[in-house]
Structures are given as C-alpha cells and as structure tokens.
Amino acid sequence: MDKSLDIELTVNGSRLRRRVAARTHLVDFLREELGLTGSHAGCEHGVCGACTLRVDGEIVRGCLMLAVQANGRRVDTIEGLSDSGEIARLQQAFHRHNALQCGFCTPGMVIAAQELVRQGRKASREEIRAHLSGNYCRCTGYQAIVDAVEEVVNGQG
Ligand code: FES
Ligand code: FES
Q1: What is the pLDDT of residues 79-137, one digit of tens each?
Q2: Which residues have C-beta atoms less than 6 Å from ligand 1?
Q3: Could you say which architecture CATH assigns to the domain 87-153?
Q4: Domain boundaries defined on the chain
Q5: CA–CA separation, 25 vs 48, rounded Å?
Q6: Coil, strand or helix at 99
Q7: Does pTM top 0.90 for this prediction?
Q8: H-type helices in the chain, by residue range?
Q9: CB of 100 shorter than 6 A to ligand 2
Q10: Which CATH homologous superfamily contains domain 4-81?
C-alpha cells in the first residue's frame, strides 16, 4: 500500500502544502513535484553529496530524508541560495577557476562549501578537502574546486 500524507513546509522562502507518498525522498519531491532540479540524485545512498540541501539551516542529504520528514521545516535548495545572493561569491569563484565540467556535483559542492564560508574562519587546503570529502566530483580532479573555495574562504573572493 502506498500511503500518502499532507505536508506543509517552506521551500526557498515560500510556504507550501502538498500531499506526498510517504516513501518519497526529499530530493525527488523537490525535483519532481516542485521542479527544483538543481538538487541532483546521484548515488541515492548518502555517499556522493549531489543531493545536498539545507533543512532548518543544516546541510543534509536529500536522498536520505523523506519529504514527510520536512513537514513544518524550512528547506533551502541551490536555487534559493542562488536567488538570495548568498552563494554569489562561490559561484563567481567556481566560474573564474573553471571548477566544474559536467556540473552534476556542483550544486551540492557549492552548498557544502558555503558551510565552510559561514564558519567565517580561514581554512587550509587540507581542511577544505576534508570538508568537501563527502561531495564527489567525477570530472575535475578537485584541484580547481579547492582553488575556488580557498579563494572565498580565505577572503580573496
Ligand atoms: S544522491 Fe544523495 S548522497 Fe548521493
Ligand atoms: S563537474 Fe562533473 S561531477 Fe563534478
């Protein structure tokens, strides 16, 4: 039996009500129901970080959380963070350093990197690599990504 439930949540500042199947993952709800396709579903096992989102200000794996678990909570996706300008410096730095190729990992990578920026302290390349170690990129070899994040975290971006 496929049970459905009513949920009410705030997504990128907009209050929404929807009826969702209890088994729907948050990343699939955002992509398929709301058309917010910036959050990607990669491994769907909590490993690759492509589905990284913020729920009540904390980064989470959208593939490990059910949409019904977001009931009453605030969800921010790459679209909302981009529209608000919060990640503008990272976006510019990624662009400047050519820190992406296919772009599949990039939304999750940027949301994860923004966590480091929000900590407001300088970080070594090793610390940046450790911080981003839960976000996989199959294309870039990470060098340019770390260059871009380093520039912003250490205040040059
Ligand atoms: S799709 Fe969620 S961690 Fe890979
Ligand atoms: S740019 Fe292709 S997976 Fe990272």
Answers
A1: 999 999 999 999 999 999 999 999 999 999 999 999 999 999 999 999 999 999 999 99
A2: 41-44, 46-51, 61, 63
A3: Orthogonal Bundle (1.10)
A4: 4-81, 87-153
A5: 16
A6: coil
A7: yes
A8: 26-28, 78-84, 88-96, 106-119, 125-131, 143-153
A9: yes
A10: Beta-grasp domain (3.10.20.30)
